Amino acid sequence: MTELIPGFLWGASTAPHQIEGNNVNSDWWAFEPHMPGMARSGDAIDSYHRYAEDMRLLADAGLNAYRFGIEWARIEPHEGHISLAELAHYRRMIDTAVDLGLTPVVTLHHFTNPRWFTEDGGWLEDRAIDRFRSYVETATRILDGVEWVCTINEPNILALMALMGKSQQQAPAEGDDAEKWLSPTVEGDARPVLPSPDPTIGRRLAQAHQAAREVLKERTGAKSGWTVACQSLTATPGNEEKLREVRYVREDLYLEAARGDDFIGVQSYSSQTVDANGIVPHPEHPDNTLTGNAYRPDALGIAVRHAWETTGHTPVLITENGIATDDDTRRIAYTSEALRHLFATVDDGIDVRGYLHWTALDNYEWGHWEPTFGLIAVDRETFERHPKPSLAWLGDIARSGGKALEAQA
């Protein structure tokens, strides 16, 4: 019987741009009209105004944690101008979560930048680290009592987005490969493997993370870390060295930067192999998810074990794990198996602090609405929330401390 630590977090995650709506001062908002064949975020699912309802659904189901983000572009819409109203808004979110019995896990940066930041050179501009540090200092005004803070979400994907031009307000130039303008979260049958992130940007993001970590340590009592997109890569026979090469630039650079953090956020969905040429695309299969990924619930265990070793045994918090599917019975089946693999890592002595499902609500998936990851469906015309059976199921698992899952085996 797996014994989870006292206070194990059971919850779900969201990203502000994907759920809030009308994030008009961000670079993504400015870029969206120029993405060929991709949808705009618009009102998203109006969680900016409906966050209390969303949190209550999670709490009533039996979950005890909620990971959500605050938007730099809202808090600092112009350089040096701080919106006190937006700070107050996000503090109300924190207070609402606490009042409902949900431990808030707050993400400071989830892919989007203020438009002014990107237009002035973004992460490679000389003042980028100081600008981010200043924002984090501002954010600490509202973090009193918050126990968990993620500095930057998936810096390896953020570095990739910068490489792909995702953070630029420009249309693709004539002759550009249209594939690279697709969502960074959607790949698989119909498209090649996403390119490797730019390590120059990756190292700059690691500096930004370290600066944020210092600020948080000085000004708050929160545990801090960042989250990494873990691909659970494995080598085909004879290609172990190629695996190490590919994995370093796509993942290990970022995991190594987490050494000494209070936790590492592991985000896992699927697994791929690496051959002599690099990552092998997901093969076509009827079980592939709505994003084209292979159905691999075992990826979570692979990701946790690799993150644990590469970070030098930094405590693990699962900050995202889920499946893009319109079949909720399949979501439950996937999550059941993923959790069993997670529990096996705990049995082997890995320090796992919690499991936060991606995602709480069906949302804007960076240019698409079709991939549905949520425990809660949303009518995008009325914004009415419709909890899926998977929400109640995960709540039951949470209430039992994981024992209900083992009883189902």
Describe the structure using short key phrases:
409 residues, alpha/beta, TIM Barrel, three-stranded mixed sheet, 14 helices, 39% helix, globular
Explain this structure.
This protein is α/β, with parallel strands linked by helices and 409 residues long. The chain has a single domain (9-408), classed as Glycosidases (TIM Barrel, Alpha-Beta Barrel), CATH 3.20.20.80. The chain is built from 14 helices and 13 strands. The chain has helices at 16-19, 27-31, 47-61, 72-75, 84-99, 115-119, 128-139, 155-164, 199-219, 240-256, 299-310, 328-347, 389-399, 403-408; strands at 9-13, 65-69, 103-107, 148-153, 223-229, 234-235, 264-268, 273-275, 278-279, 316-321, 352-358, 376-378, 385-387. The strands form three sheets. Strands 1-2-3-4-5-7-10-11 form an eight-stranded parallel β-barrel, surrounded by eight helices. Helix 12 (328-347) links the parallel strand 10 and strand 11 (352-358).
CATH level 1 class label: Alpha Beta
Which CATH-level-2 architecture? Answer: Alpha-Beta Barrel
Helical amount: 25-40%
Biggest β-sheet description = 8 strands, parallel, barrel
Helix and strand pattern:
EHHHEHHEHHEHHEEHEEEHEHEEEHH
**Share of β-strand residues:** 5-15%
Molecular shape: globular
Task: Quickly count the helices.
Answer: 14
Q: How many beta-strand runs?
A: 13
Q: What's the rounded overall pLDDT mean?
A: 93
The CATH topology assignment is TIM Barrel
